[in-house]
């Protein structure tokens, strides 16, 4: 007679009340299931499922880690976004090139001869010399390169407004007279955050008020863990600030794009209960020479769908912290 040795105890999966409960599993970026509770318990016992995997019980409507799933943490979750209909094949992304620039013109570029034609000058794009700061920033005409689409000209203040409105991002390319090549917004000195903060503090009258609009929601620091999925795979992250309208997060995924829809589970912290939210990526930090798809990157996200209870908790927390 043989006796079987189980390497780890079979955890009790609380909060799952019926053997017909459907449980989905995300492992190594792929989603499997649905399984019954008994099937999940067996896979955990044999080591087929580990602490690195995520579990989705349809009762909780949340992605959980193994430890959370085992101790029934899902019973404390704010009910949030449902499981997407096709978790394994659908990727929610918007066409990032479909951006409406007011009064924009497409500027022709001759890539064969590596020249950029404007009504002002023909500029050689082969140079890699450092970019100077324009002497008369407010008077310069700026052009924007987004993927294969080129827009402009814009004034410097129009550029700042588009950055504020998230229609231009710091990883987009820009060019103005005096620059020898297209540069990322993040690499141009006059678009650096410290330069813009100095400009904000200067007395620019109505022009300053027109560009630097007041934020709709107060923000405050909020440090906690998050679980993110995009209808195809799941990854981890951390939040660093929050408001009623959205949050600042660091995600271990460098491939997300502004305009993309994500489902995010925020774990409880700082007197804010755990909650789920459907979110839109509205900004992304530019990191030079980034090649690792799992590298941590800062994103700004906007809440598209969040429960009233979670929003009230966030509002109370932000008001108290302020």
What does this 3D model show about the protein?
It is elongated and about 70 Å long. The strands form four sheets. It has a six-stranded antiparallel β-barrel with strand order 13-14-15-18-17-16. It has a five-stranded antiparallel β-sheet with strand order 5-10-9-11-12. The chain has a four-stranded antiparallel β-sheet with strand order 2-1-3-4. The chain has 322 residues and is of the alpha+beta class. The N and C termini lie far apart (68 Å). The chain has helices at residues 37-45, 66-71, 156-164, 193-201, 206-211, 308-321, and strands at residues 23-27, 30-35, 54-57, 62-65, 105-106, 109-110, 115-117, 122-124, 142-146, 149-154, 173-176, 183-184, 220-229, 234-242, 246-251, 261-266, 275-284, 297-306. The chain has three domains: 23-76; 105-211, no CATH class; 220-321, predicted glycosyltransferase like domains (Thrombin, subunit H, Beta Barrel). Mean pLDDT is 71; it is low at 1-19, 71-134 and 209-213.
